Amino acid sequence: MTSEWIVSCDEASIAKDDVARFDHLGETYAVVRMSDGVCNVMDGLCTHGKAHLAEGFVDGTTIECPKHNGRFNVLTGEATASPARVATRVYQTRINDSKIEFLKDK
Ligand code: FES
User: Fold this and answer.
1) Taking the complete model, does pTM exceed 0.90, yes or no?
2) Would you tell me which CATH number, out of the four given (3.30.465.10, 3.50.50.60, 2.102.10.10, 3.40.630.30), belongs to the domain 3-97?
């Protein structure tokens, strides 16, 4: 299986402790900028009820779903608060020329 780097948002367009939605080839992602400024990309739909995590809230390394307040670890994808129980996918992420890029399997 091969992978490719997908270019998403400009790093400066996302404030610390905030998240942006990024859609690409029919899939949706949540691009998170944590309180320390580090960015990470994760699947955009909550594993519990398919809400858009980009409409949620970021606090440190945690993102809270806007629908039922389930929480996920932004670094690992682990579900850390009910009713979310299934981990979400996180992607290897890098900054390249001020753009947030993530590694996706083809
Ligand atoms: S849809 Fe996210 S916790 Fe229910």
Assistant:
1) yes
2) 2.102.10.10
